[in-house]
UniProtKB/TrEMBL annotation:
Annotated organism of origin: Dendroctonus ponderosae
One Pfam family it belongs to: Sulfate_transp
Entry keywords, A to Z: Membrane, Transmembrane, Transmembrane helix
Gene3D superfamilies for this protein: STAS domain (3.30.750.24)
Gene Ontology BP, a term: transmembrane transport
SLC26A/SulP transporter domain boundaries: 109-501
A GO-annotated cellular component: membrane
Protein name: SLC26A/SulP transporter domain-containing protein
Lineage summary: Eukaryota, Metazoa, Ecdysozoa, Arthropoda, Hexapoda
């Protein structure tokens, strides 16, 4: 027979331990709340004393015989049937849940939000292509198919799938100027990695990127992006992907500054910042009813601020057109191919490029080697960006990281078939999406339609857009990504977290981004391991109800391999110094491993050799099973404070019998 507890299993069907648990009862019908290891010399006699007290866990027990065992095949069938349900289908294809309830009010909200975000994404896509080191059309290619795919699989209505500043910079550092073919292949594998992670439920991996690491990374990215756009504001040539390298090249070419680009760029930055402030202005009382004029005026200011990027692009495009007479004093983005991109798979067979007037074939394996760690880092950062949006606009609802991985993974895979670079959810566009009144992910359809119309009809106009205007749009946006506001609270809260954030920030500035964030994550893991290796332990000298003194030692967390020697040395030192019975309070020990079990075995032997009583109080059955796997001698666990005197008397009786035998 297998003795099992309903809330957690004391001894499972696979458990080889035979320690008596709480099944014994005294003659008076009182339940047992202590047990001993069967290898203990006293285990021939059950503890008959005890009191009916509250056990810290459920008291409901059931007995299972051998008939309770289940075959593997029925178990697999049960698991499969539990997964292949209507609920799971609706969870993995969210459009099935909201589409039947779609109404006119939702359609109006989605159309307004989709068009507003479309006006924002077109100039951003052109600008982000420059960050990625690609021709401007590649940003537009990644702004429509992915947004449409996200409609069916996305779980957050506010996420505007498309190119972002961070994904563009990661693309630039991954492809290292090797051309669009590498960017398209990176897009496919970014989506593939994200999709596979979603299938296997690996969304928890972003939990290893803590707040300080994320803040340091985001702030460093903002400065790198800003730096990369300074060259377009000045009109100089400054290649490089690392912060220090870019500034070095800027100063080397500073004498070639184009005054036209500089003046236009600075003017655009000022106008964009002013329009941002104007959009936050409101007339009328802060509390109370607004008049129709006040509502209309406030909405007009908001719309003006929201469309500021599009307004700047249109105005500067006309300026570029007016100044163009075969040549232009401004640096223009140049020709953008008209029409939609051809639908074709990424270059899995490699591609051909021209080197020194010779056509050279670059095989697929070499392309993968060139992309290196970008294939791993880019998907994780894309998920981090998207989850940040979901959390910001979730209104307290749980966020399904697994579903978001599936959604953005499929979106990036689809984007790779239309020559796009990796994308994700953009927080700035998400804020506009939300404030525009988006109701469902269908708003992405109207954004995609607007981008398609731009590719079909407006590409001739793009020729005259100055690069300085696009650089100004990026700079005016990314300066607010530098998270200066978190420094003071982080300093007041926990200084080690600020140190972690600063280290990540510096590492991302002086090293490639993927290396910098790995440095931050590595430091974070070291901090976690250090805290795990040095648990807080309280030591108290207490007295039982019969005036017997004992030492209560209470660790505050689980016992795993980094902390075992530290705990053992501390327990040994204080137990020898005090020379009285020792009780280890295990209430906070929710997990243990094999190393901890070997240490417990050693400690119990040491105490037995010194004839010093040692007891474990309130040890969780799952942890006890780990310890008993090595069958430690004199391993005694109890769950009732009042039983300590009985256990001490029993230990003393054992000691007396041993002395008499001697």
């Amino acid at each position: 027979m297998v003795f099992q507890k309903k809330s957690f299993q004391i001894h499972s069907e696979d458990d080889n331990n035979t320690a008596r648990d709480l099944q014994g009862e005294s003659g008076g019908g009182r339940k047992m709340f202590a047990y001993e290891n069967p290898s203990l010399s006293l285990s021939g006699d059950s503890l008959k004393t005890g009191s009916t007290v509250d056990f810290q866990g459920s008291r409901d027990f059931i007995f299972q015989g051998n008939e309770g065992k289940k075959d593997t095949l029925p178990w697999l069938k049960q698991k499969a049937s539990s997964k292949l349900t209507k609920k799971t289908l609706y969870k993995r294809i969210p459009v099935l849940g909201w589409a039947p309830k779609y109404d006119k009010a939702a359609a109006v909200g989605d159309i307004l939000a989709g068009v507003t975000v479309g006006l924002m994404v077109i100039p951003q896509a052109l600008a982000y292509s420059g960050i990625a080191g690609l021709p401007p059309q590649y940003g537009l290619y990644g702004s429509f198919i992915g947004a449409i795919v996200y409609i069916f699989f996305g779980s957050c209505k506010d996420v505007p799938m498309g190119p972002t500043a961070i994904s563009a910079l990661l693309t630039f550092q991954s492809i290292k100027g090797m051309g669009p073919e590498h960017a398209v292949l990176l897009c496919f594998f970014t989506g593939l990695v994200q999709f596979v992670m979603g299938i296997f439920g690996l969304g928890f991996l972003i939990d290893f990127i803590s707040g300080p690491v994320s803040s340091g990374f985001t702030s460093a990215v903002a400065l790198i992006i800003l730096t990369s756009q300074v060259k377009d504001i000045l009109g100089v040539h400054a290649p490089g992907s690392v912060f220090t390298e870019i500034w070095k090249n800027i100063f080397q070419d500073i004498h070639n500054t184009n005054a036209w680009d500089t003046c236009l760029g600075i003017a655009c930055i000022i106008v964009l910042l002013v329009m941002r402030v104007v959009g936050q202005m409101k007339i009328g009382p802060s509390k109370g009813e607004l008049s129709s004029f006040q509502k209309c005026f406030n909405k007009s200011l908001w719309l003006l601020a929201t469309a500021r990027n599009a307004i700047i692009v249109i105005v500067c495009g006309f300026i570029g057109y007016a100044l163009y007479d075969g040549t232009s004093p401004l640096t223009l983005i140049g020709a953008v191919p008209a029409g939609l991109p051809s639908l074709q798979p990424p270059p899995f067979g490699g591609y051909n490029r021209i080197e020194n007037n010779t056509e050279v074939h670059v095989p697929f394996v070499e392309m993968m080697a060139n992309l290196s760690t970008g294939i791993i880092v880019t998907p994780l950062i894309g998920l981090l960006e998207t989850i940040a949006i979901c959390k910001a606009f979730s209104d307290g609802k749980p966020v399904d990281a697994t579903q978001e991985l599936i959604a953005i993974g499929l979106a990036n895979i689809a984007n790779s078939f239309v020559h796009a670079f990796p994308g994700a959810g953009a927080l700035a566009r998400a804020a506009v999406n939300n404030s525009s009144g988006v109701k469902t992910p269908l708003g992405g359809l109207y954004t995609g339609i607007l981008v398609i119309l731009a590719l079909l009809f407006f590409t001739p106009f793009f020729y005259y857009i100055p690069k300085a205007a696009l650089a100004a749009i990026i700079i005016a946006a990314v300066i607010f990504m530098v998270e200066v506001r978190v420094v003071k609270p982080m300093w007041r809260s926990k200084k080690s977290d600020l140190f972690l954030g600063v280290c990540t920030f510096v590492a991302c500035l002086v090293l490639p981004l993927e290396v910098g964030i790995l440095v931050g994550i590595g430091l974070n893991v070291l901090f976690i391991l250090y805290h795990a290796a040095r648990p807080k332990i309280s030591i108290e000298r207490l007295t039982t109800s019969r005036n017997t003194e004992y030492l209560m030692i209470t660790p505050d967390r689980c016992l795993i391999f980094p902390s075992t020697d530290y705990v053992r040395n501390l327990v040994t030192k204080h137990s020898i110094r005090q020379g009285i019975p020792v009780v280890i309070d295990c209430s906070h020990i929710y997990g243990a491993d094999y190393t901890a079990a070997t240490v417990v075995e050693t400690i119990t032997k040491d105490f037995a050799l010194r004839n010093q009583p040692l007891f474990f109080y309130n040890l969780k059955p799952s942890v006890s099973a780990v310890f008993e796997g090595l069958s430690p001698q004199d391993f005694v666990v109890y769950y009732d404070h009042d039983q300590l005197d009985d256990l001490l008397e029993k230990q003393n009786a054992k000691k007396t019998d041993t002395n008499n035998i001697v």
